[in-house]
Design goal:
β9 and β10 form a beta hairpin. Among the domains are: about 250 residues, ANL, N-terminal domain (Rossmann fold), CATH 3.40.50.12780; about 130 residues, ANL, C-terminal domain (GMP Synthetase, Chain A, domain 3). The protein starts with 18 loop residues before the first helix and ends in a 27-residue tail after the last helix. The strands form nine sheets. It has a seven-stranded mixed beta sheet with strand order 5-4-17-16-18-19-20, with helices on both faces. A five-stranded parallel beta sheet has the order 7-6-8-11-12, sandwiched between helices. The chain has a four-stranded antiparallel beta sheet with strand order 24-25-27-28. About 30% of the residues lie in helices and about 25% in strands. It is built from 21 helices and 31 strands. α2 crosses α4 and α3 packs across α4. The chain is α/β, with parallel strands linked by helices and about 650 residues long.
C-alpha cells in the first residue's frame, strides 16, 4: 500500500461477512437477478460493479424493478449517456417521490422520535399518511403549486418528514435547514429560492437548554417577501405566541384545522422533476443552490440504502443528522425501503455519551449512521457501549462527514460491537448520495472505504487526467449517473454548474476529494482537494495528519492549513487540547514524532499552535479554508454558515505566524 496510515496487507481484516449474513442480503439477491437478467456469470461483487458501469441503462432498469419503484418507467432508459452533463435517465418516465416513500400502511411504527431526554414520540404508518394528507391539503389551500418551493427551518422531527412528503406529493420543491442557523445564513439560502410557504419550529432543545427562536423568525420572515404563510410547529411550547408576532404566521394546528384526513393524492411528475434544493456549505461565499431530481434521488438512495446497506422491511434505521445536512434527505429515503426511521434531535452527548446507544438498545436499532467525529468523541470519552448496551440487533454502522481515522475503525470493533459491518461512506450534497461506501460481501479493512457504488465509474486521476492505480489524486466519476444535479438554481446557462464539476476534466465529474486506491480495491479519502497542503510542491491530504495527531491523548482535535511562506507553503497545525493539557516542548515533540513516523517527514508541521476552539460548519465539518483565509488576512465572506463563527477570531493576527 502507498499510504503510511494503512497497515501492511499482511494484517487481517477487522471483519468478514458470514455466509449466513450474505445468504439473505439484498445485494446477494440483486446479483443473482442481474446474472439471470444478463446471462453473465457475475461471480462476485467486482464483476457486478463492472457490468453496472458497462451497461448503465440495463443496471438502473434492474434497480427500478428490483426495488419495486412505483411509477411508469416509459420506453427509453438512457439518452445521451456519454454526455456529462446532459445525459438523461428514464426521460419518458413519471413517478411521485412521496408515493414511493408511503407504500406501507398500518399500525407499525413509521417514525420514532427522541428529542434529547425531553421528548419521546412515535407515529404509525397510518398516522404518517394522515398527517401528510392534511398537510398536502393545507399547502394547496395556501397556494402551493407544482414547482413552487416550500422552505423549512426545522429540527429532525416527524412533522418535518411529513411536510417534505406533502410538498413532494404535489410536485412542489422542498428545501430545509436546521433551527440553529442565524438569520443571515437562512436568508442567504432561502432568499435565493423564493419560497411560497415557510415552516419553522418555535424552538429546540440542545445540551439540556431550551432555545426559543421567535426573535430569529421575527427577523427572517419579513425578509422573505414571497412567503404567503409561515407555519410555526410546536416543540418547546411557544408556537402560539411565536405565530402571533408574524404577519402571516399560523400554528401548525390552525394550518391543519380545516382539513380532514383523506387519501393522499400523488401527482405524477417527470423523472427529472425537481425534488430538493440543497446548499453548499457557503463558507467561501453565498451558498450554491443545488437542484436534485425526484427520480435520480429515489433510484440512487434505494440502491445505497437497500442494496449496499441491506436495509429493508422491518429494519429500524437511524442517522444522527440535522435538516441542514444531506444525510437527513438520505435517511428519509429509508421509508422507501420499508424501514422504520429512528429520529433524534439535539446534542448526541446529552445527558452523556451513551444517549444514542440507549436509543439503539431501546428501539432495537438495526442500522446506526453517524459522523466520524462522533465515533472519535465516544472513543475519547472512555465509553464502551460493547459492555453497557444490548446492541444485538445492530447489523451495520456507517460513518461520514469527514474521513474515519484508522483508530476509530478499531474502536468500533473493540468498543461498540465485534460483529458489525462498519461502512465509511463518502459523497456529498452535490450528488445527495455517495460515490464510495460499504460493500456487503467484502471485508472491512482498517482505515479503508470498501469500494465504489454500483453504477458509478469512480476513479482516481492525477492532475493530467491519467488514472492512478496507486498514489493519491483527484476522485472522479467517468460516466453520468442519475443523481447528478439537474443544475443550480438561477443558473440559466448552466455555466456555474459546469464550472463546479466539469472545468477540470472535460466530460468527467471532478468531485474535489483527494483520494487513493488501496491494495484491496477500496479507497482512502485524504481530505478535500482544495484543502490539500503543498509544501515543496508535494500534495498532502490533511486527513493523513489528523489520523496521527488525534491518537495522542492530550489532543482533542486538530486543524491543518498551508501558510504561504518564503515563496513556498509551510504546514501549520492547530490543536485543541483536552482540559488540563498544555502545549509544551515535550508535547510538540510527541506530535511531530508521531506525524513523522505515522505519515512522513513532509507532513510534519513547521508550526504547532494551541487554540481554544476549531471552527466548523453546521454539519460538523472543520473549515480549513476559512481558517486559511483568516491567517492570510483575507475576509471570510459567509460566517453565518458556521456553527461557531466566533472561533475564527482565535486565528487572526497570531504572532506565532508573523
Amino acid at each position: 500500500m502507498t499510504s503510511a496510515n494503512i497497515p501492511a496487507s499482511s494484517e487481517q481484516p477487522l471483519w468478514v461477512p458470514s455466509a449466513a449474513r450474505l445468504a439473505d442480503h439484498p445485494m446477494t439477491h440483486f446479483r443473482a437477478a442481474a446474472a439471470e437478467w444478463t446471462g453473465l456469470p457475475l461471480p462476485d461483487h467486482d464483476a457486478l460493479h463492472q457490468w453496472s458501469i458497462d451497461d448503465r441503462a440495463a443496471f438502473w432498469d434492474l434497480v427500478w424493478d428490483f426495488c419495486g419503484v412505483e411509477g411508469d418507467k416509459g420506453e427509453r432508459l438512457l439518452v445521451d449517456g456519454d454526455r456529462m452533463p446532459g445525459a438523461r435517465f428514464f426521460p419518458d418516465a413519471t413517478l411521485n417521490f412521496a408515493e414511493n416513500l408511503l407504500r406501507i400502511s398500518g399500525d407499525d411504527d413509521a417514525l420514532v422520535f427522541w428529542g434529547e431526554d425531553r421528548v419521546k414520540r412515535r407515529l404509525s404508518w397510518d398516522d404518517l399518511h394522515a398527517l401528510v394528507s392534511r398537510l398536502q391539503q393545507a399547502l394547496v389551500a395556501a397556494g402551493v403549486k407544482v414547482g413552487d418551493r416550500v422552505a423549512a427551518m426545522m429540527p429532525n422531527m416527524p412533522e418535518t418528514i411529513a411536510a417534505m412528503l406533502a410538498t413532494a406529493s404535489i410536485g412542489a420543491v422542498w428545501s430545509s435547514c436546521s433551527p440553529d442557523f442565524g438569520p443571515r445564513g437562512v436568508l442567504d439560502r432561502f432568499g435565493q429560492i423564493e419560497p411560497t410557504v415557510f415552516i419553522a419550529c418555535d424552538g429546540y432543545y440542545y445540551a439540556g437548554k431550551t432555545i426559543d427562536i421567535a426573535p430569529k423568525l421575527a427577523e427572517i420572515v419579513p425578509s422573505l417577501p414571497t412567503v404567503r404563510k409561515t407555519v410555526v410547529v410546536p416543540y418547546i411550547g411557544t408556537a402560539e405566541a411565536s405565530a402571533a408576532t408574524l404577519a402571516n404566521g399560523v400554528t401548525l394546528d390552525a394550518f391543519l384545522a380545516p382539513f380532514p384526513v383523506a387519501p393522499v393524492a400523488f401527482a405524477a411528475m417527470p423523472f427529472a422533476h425537481p425534488l430538493y434544493i440543497m446548499f453548499s456549505s457557503g463558507t467561501t461565499g453565498v451558498p450554491k443552490c443545488i437542484v436534485h431530481s425526484a427520480g435520480g434521488t429515489l433510484l440512487q438512495h434505494l440502491k445505497e440504502i437497500h442494496l449496499h446497506s441491506g436495509v429493508g422491511d422491518g429494519d429500524r434505521m437511524f442517522y444522527f443528522t440535522t435538516c441542514g445536512w444531506m444525510m437527513w434527505n438520505w435517511l428519509v429515503s429509508g421509508l422507501a425501503a420499508g424501514a422504520t426511521l429512528l429520529l433524534y434531535d439535539g446534542s448526541p452527548f446529552h445527558p452523556g455519551p451513551e444517549i444514542l446507544f440507549d436509543y439503539a438498545d431501546a428501539e432495537q436499532m438495526t442500522f446506526f449512521g453517524t459522523s466520524a467525529k462522533f465515533i472519535d468523541a465516544v472513543h475519547k470519552s472512555g465509553a464502551r457501549p460493547i459492555e453497557t448496551h444490548d446492541l444485538s440487533t445492530l447489523k451495520t454502522m456507517t460513518s461520514t462527514g469527514s474521513p474515519l481515522a484508522p483508530e476509530s475503525f478499531s474502536f468500533v470493533y473493540e468498543g461498540i460491537k465485534k460483529d458489525i459491518q462498519l461502512a465509511s461512506i463518502s459523497g456529498g450534497t452535490d450528488i445527495v448520495s455517495c460515490f464510495v461506501l460499504g460493500i456487503p460481501e467484502k471485508p472491512v479493512w482498517k482505515g479503508e472505504i470498501q469500494g465504489p457504488g454500483l453504477g458509478l465509474a469512480v476513479d482516481v486521476w492525477d492532475e493530467d487526467g491519467t488514472p492512478l492505480a496507486r498514489g493519491k489524486g483527484e476522485l472522479v466519476c467517468r460516466k453520468a449517473f442519475p443523481s447528478m444535479p439537474i443544475g443550480f438554481w438561477n443558473d440559466a446557462d448552466g455555466s456555474r454548474y459546469h464550472a463546479a464539476y466539469f472545468d477540470r476534466f472535460d466530460n468527467v465529474w471532478c468531485h474535489g476529494d483527494f483520494a487513493e486506491w488501496t491494495a484491496h480495491g477500496g479507497l482512502i479519502i485524504h481530505g478535500r482537494s482544495d484543502a490539500t497542503l503543498n509544501p515543496g510542491g508535494v500534495r498532502i491530504g490533511t486527513a493523513e495528519i489528523y489520523n496521527q495527531v488525534e491518537q495522542i491523548p492530550e489532543v482533542q482535535e486538530a486543524l491543518a492549513i498551508g501558510q504561504d511562506w518564503d515563496n513556498d507553503v509551510r504546514v501549520v497545525l492547530f490543536v485543541r487540547l483536552r482540559d488540563g493539557a498544555v502545549l509544551d516542548e515535550a508535547l510538540a515533540r510527541t506530535i511531530r514524532d508521531r506525524i513523522r513516523t505515522g505519515a512522513s517527514p513532509r507532513h510534519v508541521p513547521a508550526k504547532i499552535i494551541a487554540v481554544a476552539d476549531i471552527p466548523r460548519t453546521k454539519s460538523g465539518k472543520i473549515v480549513e479554508l476559512a481558517v486559511r483565509e483568516i491567517v492570510h488576512g483575507r475576509p471570510v465572506k459567509n460566517q453565518e454558515a458556521l456553527a461557531n463563527p466566533e472561533a475564527l477570531a482565535l486565528y487572526r493576527d497570531l504572532p506565532e505566524l508573523a
